[in-house]
Write a structure and sequence with these properties.
With 233 residues, the chain is mainly α. The chain folds into two domains: 34-170, Orthogonal Bundle (Helix Hairpins); 176-232, no CATH class. The protein is 76% helix and 5% strand. It has helices spanning 3-32, 35-80, 87-170, 176-185, 208-214, and strands at 191-195, 198-199, 229-232. It has a three-stranded mixed sheet with strand order 2-1-3. A hairpin with a 2-residue loop joins strand 1 (191-195) and strand 2. Helix 1 (3-32) runs antiparallel to helix 3 (87-170). The longest helix has 84 residues, at 87-170. The radius of gyration is 41 Å and the shape is rod-shaped.
C-alpha cells in the first residue's frame, strides 16, 4: 500500500466520522429549536386574551340590555297600572318610554356588534389552537424520526472509530502527523484524489511531472494549489 493510499484510507474513516458528527450537531440544533412552537403558543395565548376581552364586553352589553329592559318594564307598569291619572305625569311616562325604547335599540345594536366580535375572536382562538396542535403533532413525529437517526449516527460513529483504531494499530503510517496537521488546516480534507490530471478538492490542473511523482508508492506529493496530499484516483 502506497503512502498516499494509507492516508486516503484513513481519511475515508475520518470523513465518515466528521460527516456523522456534523449531522449530529444539526439534529441537536433542530431538536432544541422551539422558536416556531413558542410563536404558535404565543399566538394562541394572544388570541385567548382577545377573546376573553371580547366576551367580557359582550356580557357587559348584555347586562346593559337586560337593565334597560327592566327599566322599560317598570315604566310600562307605571304607565298602564291605572294608578297615575295626572295627564302631565302620564305624558312624562310616555316620553320616558319612548326614550327608553330608543336607547334600547342602541344598546341592542352594541350587543350585536359585541356578539359578532366575540364570535370572530373565538374563531381566531380555535384556529390558533388548531395550528398549535398540528405543530405539536408534526414536531413530535419529526423528532421521533430525528431521534432514531441520531441513535443510528451515534452507532455509526462508534463503529467507525473502532474501525479506525483497528486500522491504525494494524498499519504503520509514517506520515500520520503531517496528515493530522493538514486536516486541521484544510477543512478536514488532507488527501485529495487526483483524477484526470486534476485535484478533485480545488480543481487545479496537476503538472505531468507532479502527477508522475504522485503515482509513486514511495513518495508523498502535494497539490501545488491547495497543498493537500495527492492520491491517484
Amino acid at each position: 500500500m502506497s503512502r498516499s493510499e494509507k492516508l486516503y484510507s484513513l481519511q475515508l474513516l475520518d470523513t465518515a466520522i466528521d460527516n456523522a458528527s456534523k449531522r449530529l450537531k444539526e439534529i441537536d440544533l433542530i431538536l432544541k429549536d422551539d422558536k416556531a412552537l413558542k410563536k404558535a403558543e404565543q399566538a394562541y395565548k394572544d388570541a385567548q386574551i382577545i377573546a376573553e376581552d371580547k366576551f367580557r364586553t359582550l356580557r357587559e352589553r348584555e347586562r346593559k340590555v337586560s337593565d334597560q329592559n327592566s327599566k322599560i318594564e317598570q315604566n310600562q307598569k307605571k304607565l298602564y297600572s291605572g294608578s297615575i291619572t295626572n295627564p302631565k305625569e302620564l305624558e312624562d311616562l310616555q316620553l320616558e318610554a319612548n326614550s327608553l325604547s330608543k336607547y334600547l335599540r342602541v344598546l341592542e345594536d352594541n350587543q350585536l356588534e359585541a356578539m359578532v366580535e366575540a364570535e370572530e375572536a373565538q374563531t381566531n382562538t380555535d384556529r390558533a389552537a388548531s395550528v398549535l396542535d398540528s405543530l405539536k403533532t408534526q414536531r413530535a413525529a419529526d423528532h421521533q424520526v430525528l431521534i432514531q437517526e441520531k441513535a443510528e449516527l451515534e452507532n455509526k460513529i462508534n463503529e467507525t472509530e473502532r474501525e479506525k483504531a483497528a486500522y491504525l494499530s494494524s498499519e504503520t503510517i509514517p506520515d500520520l502527523e503531517d496528515y493530522n496537521l493538514l486536516r486541521k488546516s484544510a477543512g478536514g480534507i488532507a488527501v485529495s484524489l487526483m483524477v484526470s490530471s486534476s485535484c478533485r478538492s480545488c480543481g487545479a490542473n496537476i503538472p505531468s511531472a507532479i502527477e508522475q511523482q504522485a503515482r509513486s508508492p514511495s513518495k508523498l506529493v502535494f497539490c501545488p494549489t491547495c497543498k493537500r496530499i495527492l492520491h491517484p484516483g
